[in-house]
Fold this protein.
Amino acid sequence: MHHIIPGGPMLAAFLLSSLLLAVTPGPAVIYIVARTLGQGRLAGLTSVAAVVLGNLVNVLAAALGLAALFAVSALAFAVIKYAGAAYLVYLGLRALRAPPAAAGEAGPEAGGAGLRRVFRDGFVVALFNPKTTLFFAAFLPQFMDPAVSALPQSIALGGIFVLVASITDCCYVLAAAAVLPYLSRARGVQSAGRYLTAGALIGLGVLAAVSGGRNSK
């Protein structure tokens, strides 16, 4: 009897590979940490949830064959890539123009409006990253059983990877939040957090635009 999720050594290898890939700092980690340092722990955790949802959509896209479209259509890939890069730069410029007092607007005291904006931004950033879809399409088949339908396998394995990544991302948020009390004692920390967030977002946008690689995290 074949199972959707591999068992034994294959599952262990998949979990270890997923953990190593998830814990390696990349665009998603930088984005989440920047949000945490700039706007607080709750904003960071909200960004994690948004990235998780965006990555789950990319898992489904890879499973349904969108990755194949990106592989054969350079135009489709370029349109999505540059749209995502432009949105990152837009978020960075918006953070740069915001007054220092706005740095904490997505914190616990802000209520739902600021957090909804943080969630929306994180979801769009994750969604408009075609490299994530290509990553799942290239990584997941290494652990799939050819005797079992590819669709449920890719969705199940992709879901497990996203879960592992969400745990490591939450650890990054908690670590970044832990240093905030020390940073808050420094002069000009709100402005520094604003510039850090803006610089990270603009830098990620530029990197996404000029990068030819296909690493998702």
